[in-house]
Design goal:
single chain, 460 residues, alpha+beta, 4-stranded antiparallel sheet
Length: 460
């Protein structure tokens, strides 16, 4: 073995060992995209209002708020990007609760602490026939319920009439069915610095809040002015709770309690931390991709890749013999490098990405075929076997680099202008190009140098 071949062998062995250490065990290391793992695909339409017009800046801020919410929710590899002038596409791989995710990204989460000017009675529960002994009793109960309902509706109408004469007032429903007439806003969500999930004294989920210095001052003044009175905690024009202030609260800390679960409290805290959406959004499309479909895609993609690889391996051995064995070994190394690179770069593997891996098989073998045919020409011209080997690699290298550089340029364009699965394909294709060139020019060259130097009467 020549000294330079020995050094090449050391480099190849080191690269293979490092790649194997990164890739194996492969289970759980590859991040799967929406089409393979399942999840939710959502298209949002941004809508401007006279108070919040739709501009390029507001759309960018909308992207930032959505990304902040989704990142805090803990979704791996989400895709959030603009589509056209006023639409945003959101891909959430691995989401098990699509409605919760939709609620998280779609709600405006405007938090206000407001003065309580009045509260309507609650509408009692509607009577059920099975709770009464006779039809007459049930009918009487229905009449009482309708009277109570009408009384509450009349009370709410009076509050709504009062709002018309005072724009600072607001009528908001609560979660328990009553309505509140609200006065001025004391402090808003814009003054929040922290929102975290915790539990109240009864063990129920709650959200603890901390305000900035300005918000703390306003909250201190509000509680001081409303001792033994209610202050409403309003989220998106819904009264979450309206506790009675028992004492002045300084320090800028508060707590929201209500009839929500721990998961709901966590989503509320996330929305409050991320801030309100700068413009309104409308859900145009909400499409779920089931995990079973993703499993079928993986199965079909792996199956097609294995069939393609088997056919290529068989062809190279039948047509090129010993040279084909070297090419097949280099091909295996190239695929190992692709998988290791995808894991190391934390890239998301999509169905087109699997297609890029299958394409890498063809590109890797194509480079070897160029080299082998050039070696045959050099050998037929009268050169020795080792001289033909050197000349074949040297002269074929220019063609291999030219073709692969143009492919890399195309992949870079796909990555820059593409989205989602297209980007996944571009990443896999780029990694495959680099791996195939390395294996063509280094791995195959090393293997052939060792094989041919050991066989004195070798021929092509």
């Amino acid at each position: 073995m020549l000294k330079r071949d020995r050094w090449r062998l050391i480099v190849v062995a080191a690269v293979v060992l490092i790649a194997a250490a990164v890739a194996f065990p492969i289970k759980g290391k590859v991040r799967l995209g929406l089409d393979l793992r399942g999840g939710v695909h959502i298209i949002l339409q941004a809508k401007g209002t006279p108070e919040s017009p739709l501009t390029a800046d507001s759309l960018e801020r909308l992207l930032v708020v959505l990304r902040s919410r989704i990142d805090q929710y803990g979704i791996a590899e989400p895709l959030i990007q603009r589509e056209g002038e006023d639409r945003i596409a959101v891909d959430l791989p691995g989401v098990e609760d699509p409605e919760a995710a939709l609620d998280l990204i779609g709600r405006t989460a405007v938090l206000q602490f407001r003065q309580v000017l009045g509260e309507s009675p609650r509408v009692p529960a509607e009577p059920i026939r099975s709770n009464y002994d006779s039809d007459d009793q049930f009918k009487a109960a229905e009449e009482r319920w309708n009277a109570a309902k009408n009384e509450v509706e009349e009370y709410v109408k009076q509050m709504e009439e009062a709002v018309k004469t005072n724009p600072d007032m607001l009528v908001a429903k609560s979660e328990n069915g009553s309505a509140y007439l609200l006065g001025k806003m004391y402090v808003g969500g814009g003054d929040l610095t922290k929102a975290e999930t915790n539990f109240d004294q009864f063990g129920k989920a709650a959200v603890s809040l901390k305000f900035n210095p300005e918000g703390a001052k306003l909250f201190d003044e509000a509680t001081a002015a409303n001792i033994q009175k209610q202050i409403a905690i309003v989220l998106d024009n819904v009264v979450i709770s309206a506790p009675v202030v028992q004492q002045r609260i300084s320090g800028g800390e508060a707590q929201i309690t209500g009839s929500f679960t721990t998961a709901e409290a966590n989503r509320l805290a996330i929305m409050l931390r991320a801030g309100a959406l700068p413009v309104e959004v409308e859900v145009l499309e909400n499409r779920s991709v089931g995990p079973s479909l993703g499993a079928d895609s993986i199965h079909d993609g792996v199956k097609s890749g294995l069939i393609g690889a088997a056919l290529v391996v068989a062809f190279m051995i039948v047509y090129y013999g010993m040279l084909g064995i070297a090419a097949d070994i280099a091909l295996a190394v190239a695929m190992l490098l692709v998988v290791a690179a995808i894991i190391a770069l934390k890239s998301t593997l999509t169905l087109p990405g699997i297609g890029g891996m299958v394409l890498t098989i063809g590109m890797a073998v194509d480079g070897n075929i160029l080299i082998y045919e050039r070696m045959k020409e050099e050998f037929r011209s009268g050169k020795t076997i080792m001289a033909a080997l050197d000349a074949g690699f040297r002269k074929a290298l220019v063609v291999i680099l030219d073709s692969n550089i143009t492919t890399l340029i195309a992949a870079a364009i796909l990555f820059y202008f593409g989205s989602g699965p297209i980007r996944g394909f571009a990443v896999t294709l780029s990694v495959g190009v680099v791996a195939s060139v390395f294996c063509n020019t280094v791995v195959t060259r090393t293997l052939l140098g060792i094989m041919l130097s050991a066989r004195k009467n070798a021929t092509f």
